[in-house]
Amino acid sequence: xxxxxxxxxxxxxxxxxxxxxxxxxxxxxxxxxxxxxxxxxxxxxxxxxxxxxxxxxxxxxxxxxxxxxxxxxxxxxxxxxxxxxxxxxxxxxxxxxxxxxxxxxxxxxxxxxxxxxxxxxxxxxxxxxxxxxxxxxxxxxxxxxxxxxxxxxxxxxxxxxxxxxxxxxxxxxxxxxxxxxxxxxxxxxxxxxxxxxxxxxxxxxxxxxxxxxxxxxxxxxxxxxxxxxxxxxxxxxxxxxxxxxxxxxxxxxxxxxxxxxxxxxxxxxxxxxxxxxxxxxxxxxxxxxxxxxxxxxxxxxxxxxxxxxxxxxxxxxxxxxxxxxxx
Length: 327
Hints:
By secondary structure, this protein is an alpha/beta fold. It has helices at residues 83-90, 124-139, 161-165, 189-192, 206-216, 233-236, 261-267; strands at residues 10-21, 24-30, 45-49, 55-59, 70-75, 96-99, 114-120, 145-152, 171-177, 199-204, 224-228, 242-246, 251-255, 285-290, 293-294, 308-310, 315-316, 322-325.
């Protein structure tokens, strides 16, 4: 049987690891005994326990009809908290990783009609899985058609270009490289000026998603879908150590400079629901009893912030302060 170290994590074998772009590596994961992996829907992700100890979410980029393996891609985040670096530098083919079953926070809703994909950098991964699904539907006589726009600094930093080019029999694929100059970015207005019945799926850096949001606000409700992918503003903020107090047991736990409250709780054996670990999904919302919080999430309203905290990203306002939470 597959070894299970945590009730929601299962052991998978790293069958292959390869570099697919500058600072981006793909990992092919399989069942250690060759069994089929759980089915998933395009856009789904898995949570992986990294060698550095953090849990990180990575989108599945293979065709969802393929169950003999799953594939993720990871970008080296030079200013991150060490999770991506530990995966890229320490994990090799033949090793085991702990990973969750697929989770679907970002889903291809209507592949039988026109779809517009807008990807930036590593944000290509969930959209590649969606495009692969649509390509297979096309070959089977489906009605769907897609347009895929991939934005990156340069071709060297664009992952899976050959794989995307191979899908052009089922849709239109175009690449835009800005050379690192924001003023040379792709102008989305000609694409989004006139709303249609198409669904738009966008994944990438915050600047890209903000641009698409600004230019698609007049589209019908429910037609434009976003997934945050990559380093958020919280990861660039200055961190200081502090403490958390668990109100039910009166236990006080330290939270180190380079760990989140969620990670400190896990280390101490406490389980809290979580998914995105970037302050965007709301899964880890926890009641706040006392303390001054620096809220770094994108979910809580101003009123919610008075009595709740997202333990995956938010911290004490001052170094060595104490936050009490209802656990």
